Structures are given as C-alpha cells and as structure tokens.
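Model the whole thing, not chain by chain.
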Amino acid sequence: MTQVGYSKKVMEHFMNPRNVGVIENADGYGKVGNPVCGDLMEIFIKVKDEKIDDIKFRTFGCGSAIAVSSMVTEMAKGRSLDEAMKITRKDVADELDGLPPQKMHCSNLGADALHAAIEDYWVKTGKIKRDEPEKEEKDHEGVACPTE
Amino acid sequence: MHGIYLDYQSAMPLDPRVLEFAKKYLAEEPGNPSALHSVGLAAKSAVEEARAKAADLINAEDASNIIFTGSATEANNLAIRGVALRNAVKGNRVLASSMEHISVLNAMKELQKNGFQLSLVPVDSEGIVDLVALDSLISKETVVTSIMYANSEIGTVEPIKEIGQMVHEKGMFLHVDAVAAQGRIPIDVQSDGIDLLTLSSNDIYGPQGAGALYVSPKVKIQPAMVGGGQERGLRPGTENLFAIAGMGEAARLAKLEMKEESERLRSIRDGLIKEILKLDEAYLTGHPTRRLPNHASFRFSRIEGESILLTMDAMFDIQISTGSACSSRTLEPSHVLLAIGLKHEQAHGSMVITLGKYNNPDQIPVIANAVSQTVQRLRALSPL
C-alpha cells in the first residue's frame, strides 16, 4: 500500500525535535533555503578534536523540514567532521523511514545546512578557502524554488 | 469524529437525518430512474423530488433547471465548457476572477486550446473582485464570466448582483460557483441575475458523489460527455440515486435551518477572530465583514502552515486547513492568497478555519489556546 502522509518517525521528530536552539560563538554556522520557498534552516556547530561536540538548529518550514533538521543534528552529533560531511540527504530521509516524494528536495535541506556549517568552520580555521563571496540577503522576489 | 473538526470546507459529515432519508436507495430500493416499472418510477420520483428541493434552495424558476452531476468540479466543467463551446460562434472570450476554484480556472485554460482567450479579473487585498477592471475586461465577445459567490479560502463574499448586472449589460452569461456560499447565506439565482450556478452535495452535509448545475432557461449549453440522455442529455449516466436523493434532502434542511445556524456560527466565528487576532503578528485574511458566517482565516508571520496544521492535529486533535505551499501537490502557495497580494513568505503562514454543525461556543477558548501554543512552539523553532 502506498504510504499516506508522514512516517511515524517524521512525526516523532517533528513533535519532539532534538537539538533546537542557537550556539553563541559557534565554531561553524550554515544557513540554507529561503522563506520565499517555505523552508529555511540554520545549523550551529561547536567543534572539539575535529568532532562535532555540540550542534543546534532552527528551522522555518513544513513538518518534514523540521523533522529533517532534527534528525541530521542527531546523526551528526559526536561524529568527526569528515564523517559528518558524508551524510547525504538520502541518508537523512532513510533514517526517517522515508519522506513523501514531493518533499525529497524542497524540504530535505538538513544535510546541506550541516555541510555548510562544517565548511564555515573549515574556512574560519584556514583549512579551505571560500569559493565565492557570501551572498547578501536580498529581497527574494523572483527566487526559483525547487519543485521536486 | 473526534477532537475539534474545523475543516468543514474540505469535507462535511453526512447529516444523520439525510442518511436516514436516503439510505433506502442504497440497498432496499435501488431502482434505475429510466426503467418504466414501479421500482424504476419510484427511483425517478426520488430524483425529481431532489431536483425540486435543490431548486428551492436557490430559488430557481423551475426544478427542471437543475442538472445533477457527480461533483461540483464536474458542474463547473459542464457550465464553463458547455456554455462556451455552445456559444462559440457569438464570441471567443472567457473571464474569471484570479481566485476562482482550480476546476473553473483549469476548465477555462482548457478552452484556450479551442481558440478561446482567457482574461483574469484581479481582486483587492480583501478578496473583492475589482469591478472597474471587470467592466473594462468584459465585452460583447465574452461568452462566460465566472465569479464565485464566496471564496472558500478567505471567506470573502462577492457583490454578485452588481457583477450580474455588469455581465448582462456587456457580455453574455454569468457562471457562479456557489460551493462555499450555499447553505451559509441566501442565494437567489433570479434576483441575483445568475445564469449558471454550481452546487455541491457534501458542502451542505449531503453525501459525497453528487453536485448540481443550475442552468437558466435563457441559456443553452452543450454536454461534456454523451450517453443515454439522462439529465436532459447534459449529464448522461445512470443516476447516483443515494447521493442525489441525499443532496435534495440536505438542500431542504439547509434552507430550513440556514438563518438560525448561520447566526450561531457567526458568533463562534467572531469569538475566534477576536481571540486569535490578540496574538502577535496574526492577521485576518479576506474581508472583515463581507465574509461567510462560518469562516475565519488568518496568517501568521515567521511560521509555516503545514507545521501549524500538523501541530494542531497531533498535539490538540484539532483539524484546520492551510494554503501553504508545502501542503499542496504543486508546492506553490495558494493562488487565492497570491491573488490578494500576499508575498510567498506571507502566504506560507496561513491557517483556515471553517465551522460547522458540531462546533459550539465552548470550543472558542480551547481553539484559541491551541492556536496560541502552536504559534509559540513554531516561532521558538524558527530562525526568522
């Protein structure tokens, strides 16, 4: 039978999200998505011995966006940065027992936010150089939102 | 049902009196109205009785002006494509408000393939059709103009009588989708000047699976499909006897009880609006006074509608609706909310409450408290 609605695990994370909040003086910060498209998430990390010692998130978005954020923080916590960089969108969706097809792209941004936070840390510590200058927050008219 | 159901615009429970009235047509008297024996004639009588009751709800000239269909979507298609294609020699323009139901808009878009030109009339920030724009867009070639009686997402009631006059001075026919308005406010197709009007069974507590189209005696339309000639040949196919008989009884009860029930719901609605607008950055969508008595719709800054819906449901067992993109199949925010000029990020935070017969005033503080806690919870999660 076709699954109807969200999995129990998605609802469980949506209703009881883990690691909500901000980290003051975070070692890395990542922000992805756009309120125009209905999903915006940010992740803060604290790094110790090249491992994610603490992680917090805040998300504006639908049920799956919040569940994905919660799940990715749980998956990343305690892992080495290199391991955490390997967590994919699909890994997060699988851990949540799947997401409805139309939600796979638009709200499955947790891994992207995590990777952005790690890259931010690597830039700050001089390990990598930022590819492009950080884009200014603009008025979002005309933004193309992912549709599938 | 359990909890507090506040989504009557999506689906209504069947009225137990309607079920009692119509259930014999499911099992005991399953006649075919086209058969000439006594069982068939009884079925035919049931359909004709339902037709008269539906006609009475909207003050149609004659019961024969009611055509039963399988749904309101089907009635909208039959009205718009039927009148446009039948009258194509007289003109090739069709007109609708920008916040019509998707079945109206898609029926008109489909007509573009047949060479029709579609124009959309804008609405103002409270959802009232721009009459100046309507006046400028309508012409002698406009075969059909479709404006809803009231909008299901923002509750705004349109000035249908004025629109009817305008259409008849300059264009040909006015189609009105009355699904949200029927049974909530009085509708009189004759004094309102309506040529075609769509009704839905379930939206007056009737069974799902029936709709109806009122066709004025002045209008000729062509069928959307062909078959054995039922419903004056406009909607062939053996009648859904249970749904049609039930729709008739639902229409009779709606007319009988409308005034009292609408007063009752209006006071609950006003209580809810007053309480919910006390929250920070909470705004009413739609018109503050020209709105359906059972309709309260809002938007909240910095949070998203599907999350509102899920939290209200999972935490408080309260069922609401939203025009958020994330809850739709297209992942676009509601075209209605965009039509009233909301930005995408504003439209994402919408919540729609539609009240019905199982709501009562004692629920006002319970609902208001649930909304308040939901908004607080989601704002605490939000980076905005």
